[in-house]
């Protein structure tokens, strides 16, 4: 994950050169827990990065392109964390709980990328909401593949795995968006509840599949 700490300010003049990653780090350094990416200004970001405003355009068309890049980076970062949690889970430990715990760990680890993803999905501009939605669809597709693979391994067919993946993804992100503003002391209870809700979705989809298989088809 790129370092989002503030870039060192130069005592004299501006930086002679800068990379795309430097601008991303500068923008992330300006974001706080209650600040939307939509409030970032081009001059503010370039001042933080220590370059002239015109140099910004060597890397991004405008501030909106930078903001969408931040959202995409946030999605990639979180998918990596959650994917690692799913793959670390063993038969003796719930894949669902491991994934939910990993999500909350990032939520409380001052992960600005995750906070950005959750907030822009709720309060961002239409362009930013579309960018967040695209990231959520990536989550859904990866989860769908895992659900199908698990169903084949366990021999328990799942009804409409694409809808199951969508329901789980949207539920987790909705709970996460609310949890950001709640004290960490409530995390344990929310993890328990969210784990149970996700399992209910999966069990329900298995039940629908089993019922469909048991229902005689018209001759």
From TrEMBL:
Residues 41-60 bind DNA. Residues 17-78 form the HTH tetR-type domain. It comes from the Bacteria. Transmembrane segments: none annotated. Keywords: DNA-binding. The keyword NAD does not apply. Pfam families: TetR_N (PF00440). InterPro entries: Homeodomain-like_sf, HTH_TetR, HTH_transcr_repressor_FabR. NCBIfam families: PRK11202.1 (NF008402). This is HTH-type transcriptional repressor FabR. It comes from Luteimonas padinae. The gene is fabR.
């Amino acid at each position: 994950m790129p370092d989002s700490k503030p870039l060192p300010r130069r005592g004299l003049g501006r930086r002679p050169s800068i990379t795309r990653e430097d601008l991303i780090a500068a923008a992330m350094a300006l974001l706080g827990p209650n600040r939307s990416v939509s409030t970032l200004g081009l001059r503010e970001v370039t001042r933080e990065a220590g370059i002239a405003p015109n140099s910004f355009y060597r890397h991004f068309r405008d501030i909106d392109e930078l903001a969408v890049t931040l959202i995409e980076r946030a999605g990639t970062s979180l998918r990596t964390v959650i994917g690692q949690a799913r793959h670390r889970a063993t038969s003796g430990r719930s894949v669902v709980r491991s994934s939910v715990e990993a999500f909350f760990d990032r939520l409380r680890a001052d992960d600005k990328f995750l906070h950005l993803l959750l907030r822009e999905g709720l309060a961002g501009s239409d362009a930013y909401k579309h960018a967040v939605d695209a990231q959520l669809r990536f989550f859904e597709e990866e989860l769908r593949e895992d659900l199908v693979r698990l169903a084949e391994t366990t021999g328990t067919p799942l009804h409409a795995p694409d809808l199951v993946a969508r329901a789980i993804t949207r539920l987790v992100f909705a709970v996460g968006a609310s949890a950001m503003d709640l004290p960490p002391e409530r995390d344990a209870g929310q993890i328990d509840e969210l784990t149970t809700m996700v399992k209910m979705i999966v069990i329900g989809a298995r039940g629908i599949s089993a019922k469909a298989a048991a229902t005689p088809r018209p001759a």
